[in-house]
Design brief:
Layout (H helix, E strand, L loop, with lengths): L3 E3 L27 E4 L3 H9 L4 E3 L5 E3 L11 E4 L10 E2 L1 H15 L3 E9 L7 E8 L3 H10 L5 H5 L5 E6 L12 E5 L4 E5 L5 H17 L3 E3 L1 E8 L2 E8 L6 H6 L6 E4 L3 E3 L5 E2 L4 E5 L9 H7 L5 E3 L2 E2 L5 E2 L10 E5 L17 E6 L8 E4 L2 H9 L1 E3 L12 E3 L12 H13 L3 E6 L2 E2 L9 E2 L2 H13 L3 E4 L6 E5 L11 H7 L3 H20 L6 H4 L3
Parallel strand pairs: 2-7, 4-19, 5-6, 5-10, 8-9, 9-11, 14-23, 23-27
Antiparallel strand pairs: 1-2, 3-4, 7-8, 10-11, 12-16, 13-14, 13-15, 16-17, 18-22, 19-22, 20-21, 24-27, 24-31, 25-26, 28-29, 30-31
Length: 536
């Protein structure tokens, strides 16, 4: 049982409930008015149910409507006096100290919750993490509690976090975009969040700092799902990288040969091809969710243990996953325990193939094979079409995000160089997958949408090695001449589709533009290996 402990600005906050188990006394870096240490799931549910913006759904779980409906990228800053060592925007250490004091003073007047657990479940690689959050936003605590791998009571008694997120959803950050701030202190592995009640800032707050830890350990944190596909009695282990909303979760959980999902959002890829997991559940987009196309996620979202965020429901609690009148970025946190057939990352083999998702709408085929430095180049390009997950500023726009990982807090060239080296040390197959459309947005005449069943057929064929390939003269990758399960060749070789439709000039203009823009983009990352830059 957790316990509420009062605190002053000078006295440490101690987890009284654990005093009998250990003489060790834990302290917090802040001094709340009161704190509940590690409340149970039942307590968290009760706290969250008291929130005025929380409603019970037809499934018996809670759905919270938040003020902020997506990540606050423009309000995210790395605290450093050496901004040249980071690709993202920064604030000075002095400014960080100023806003930290504002937050500390605010917390002294607030009731807070502390959630402790691990990012990752492998004893050799798991990272102890802590969330300190206002009790008035208990749904965030409950969702993070699901995603952390649990610590035992003995571990909790002696728990010392390597990563800490201090979260005040109701404290404005004057002078920052939208009066919100996510201040990342990589020196002390602490992230402070101001004035956002969107759960993603808690989840990504820990994972962003974890990115740095993985890099320092010789690996690379990938914004990726992971799945295991049985083929002829063997495991085929695949990683799926992609920006939020590009189909990463869908691709991870769609079944091929009774495949098993391993991880939804972030994995560590280490030398030798070893994979480490991060989360004991997933934070899934819910738009268009239905039991026919995505039964695994749909049924997990219907668990009483799930937490929904910004999903449409009527007065009777009926959920509508197709209504985007409030936001198209409806979400759910679901437990791995509620995902049928999920595999444990500690028990899977080294990675066999990597899928790079690209939600394109013109000349990218449903699948292409990338070899040599070209694979690292497309990884570094991180191309896609922006979605609501990145906020209104990104939705619908063509984007390039190195590694499809907007949470890597160091120089982005490090991602491309590390991936290139990992691919050389532990060769894997690498594929580009278009999860958008061919020849247009899928609605205009002559265009064709890449549907879930097309992508599923591609993944199955990749795992089974049944795709036939030929060289593409325009982009240097391999394009498919045959994919079992896809009868329409337009999905495999867009050039022939454009030619058949009398649009070859349009196709050639796009080829020229893409090749030029891609070379220019790669050249802008100082320190990126020349063989990657020259691969396009």
């Amino acid at each position: 049982m957790s316990e509420i402990v009062s605190a002053t600005n000078t006295a440490p906050v101690r987890p009284a409930a654990h005093k009998t188990a250990s003489r060790h006394e834990k302290t917090l870096p802040v001094h709340p008015k009161s704190v509940v240490w590690n409340p149970t799931p039942e307590q968290l549910r009760a706290f969250a149910a008291e929130m005025p913006n929380a409603r019970e759904t037809e499934f018996g779980n809670l759905n919270v409507a938040t003020r902020v409906v997506s990540r606050s990228k423009l309000s995210t800053f790395i605290a450093t006096d050496t901004p040249e060592q980071h690709s993202d925007q920064t604030i000075s250490r002095e400014e960080y100290a100023r806003v930290a004091k504002l937050q500390d003073d605010y917390i002294a007047t607030r009731d807070m919750l502390v959630i402790e657990g691990y990012i990752g479940n492998d004893p050799e690689f798991r990272v102890p993490a802590r969330l300190i959050i206002e009790k008035s936003n208990a749904n965030i605590a409950a969702m993070q509690h699901i995603l952390y791998y649990p610590a035992t009571p003995a571990e909790i008694a002696e728990f010392e976090p390597a990563l800490t997120v201090i979260y005040t959803p109701n404290l404005k950050a004057d002078g920052y975009p939208d009066e919100r701030l996510i201040a990342v202190d990589l020196e002390h592995y602490t992230t402070r969040v101001f004035n956002s009640d969107y759960f993603g800032e808690s989840k990504k707050g820990g994972l962003r700092m974890w990115n740095k830890l993985v890099y320092e350990r010789g690996g690379l944190a990938l914004h990726a799902g992971c799945k295991v596909i049985p083929v002829d009695g063997q495991q085929r282990v695949g990683l799926i990288v992609g920006l939020s909303g590009t189909g990463k979760t869908t691709t991870t959980f769609t079944k091929q040969n009774n495949s098993q999902p391993v991880q939804d959002d972030f994995c560590a890829l280490m030398p030798g091809g070893k994979i480490y997991a991060t989360e004991n559940g997933c934070f899934a987009k819910t738009f268009g969710l239905n039991p026919n196309d995505e039964p695994t996620i749909y049924h997990a979202c219907a668990s009483t243990h799930a937490y929904l965020e910004n999903v449409s429901q009527n007065e009777e609690g009926k959920i509508d996953y197709f209504d985007t009148s409030y936001t198209p970025n409806g979400r759910a946190v679901i437990r791995m325990d509620d995902i049928a057939g999920a595999a444990d990352a500690r028990e899977v083999n080294n990675v066999d193939f990597l899928l790079i998702l690209n939600r394109n709408e013109n000349i990218i085929p449903a699948v292409a094979k990338l070899e040599g430095p070209l694979a690292a180049a497309y990884f570094m390009l991180g191309e896609t079409k922006g979605t609501s997950a990145g906020g209104a500023a990104e939705a619908g726009k063509s984007l390039r995000v190195p590694g499809t990982n907007p949470f890597f807090p160091l120089l982005h060239a490090y991602q491309g160089n590390r991936m290139n080296q990992l691919m050389k040390d532990s060769p894997m197959e690498v594929y580009l997958m278009n999860t958008g459309a061919i020849g247009g947005d899928g609605k205009q005449e002559g265009s064709k949408k890449v549907k879930i069943q097309h992508s599923s057929a591609v993944v199955k064929a990749i795992a089974e090695g049944t795709i036939k390939w030929e060289q593409d003269p325009d982009f240097g990758y391999l394009v498919a001449t045959e994919v079992p399960g896809i009868d329409d060749p337009d999905y495999l070789q867009p050039k022939k589709m454009y030619e058949r439709q009398g649009r070859l000039d349009e196709y050639n203009a796009l080829v020229e533009k893409y090749n030029k823009d891609r070379r220019d983009y790669l050249r802008k990352w100082k320190g990126l290996d020349e063989e990657i830059v020259n691969a396009i």
